[in-house]
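pinging the channel bc i need a second pair of eyes. not urgent but kinda urgent?? the chain im working w is below, pasted from the shared doc
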Amino acid sequence: MALSMMLPLAACVAALVVAVAAGWGGVLARGTTAVPAAVWAVVAAVAFAAEAGGRAAGWFHDPAVIAGVRLAVVSLSLCPTMALLGAKRPQHGVWQFIVASMACVLALPSASAALARPGSLPDVHPLQRWFMPLLVLVGWMNFAATRHGWAALLVASGQMLLLAEFLPWQDLDVAGADAIDAAAAVAVAAGASLAALQSTLWPAGGRGWRRSHAAVTPLVADEISAPFLALRETLGAAWTLRIAERFNAVATARGWPCRLSFTGLDAAGDPRDESWHRDAGRAARALFARFATDDWLRRHGPAPP
């Protein structure tokens, strides 16, 4: 088999691996607002697999068609990150229309070239050329400080390779495009598989979680920290830091001797003073409910008292 067919075929297989890993991630995240991001990831992976399979089968020869299809695939690949940025109830459902609109706007140069200037390459605006890698960077930063940091780095590296021909400092005609595509697909597949493996074998939170230095009962520590850490690994840093900010504002206003940090609940004061424990648990659950169902919260921590 010629190398010109092997590389796109390898990219196609790797993209299908991404689709399977993203689908499993959606199953693991069921009950949270991260599920739409997993669905977008599956759609983007299947689209890339179809493109790579079409190139392997020799369906695409015109450089303009190849560039146009690639821009559409790149636009879909940015949707999971955008979906996570709006992952808060109740607007997370409507937010998916915004995500779809973003994908359409990013892919618009492909449609414009095909309809108005057949045979010409997509004319991608410089602002779009900067926006796309910036969104990839945001997606990586969201998980860089979590245990999925290495997986996020692999995925972001693959995405940057995928949109290489649309970067601000790069012309549309990229030498060795098939090799770059194969490397991009393998990197994303490795990152997605690593994240799925981590989430399956070592689920975040859980009923056995403890903070030995927290001056609270183990039940309260589990009730708040376990689902918080699970949300951190599911949604990333952006929303969990927002949850911590809101919880700490309530704790300050009510004089609770505790604070919620990126690593969980920290408390001071007399461990025997349980006067604030119930209220703190209720406040935390009210914040978690904006991102997860009651069933998901029960799976990742003890039932509330």
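so The beta strands are 258-261, 264-267. and Confidence is low (pLDDT under 50) at residues 206-215. — does that match what u expected or am i reading it wrong
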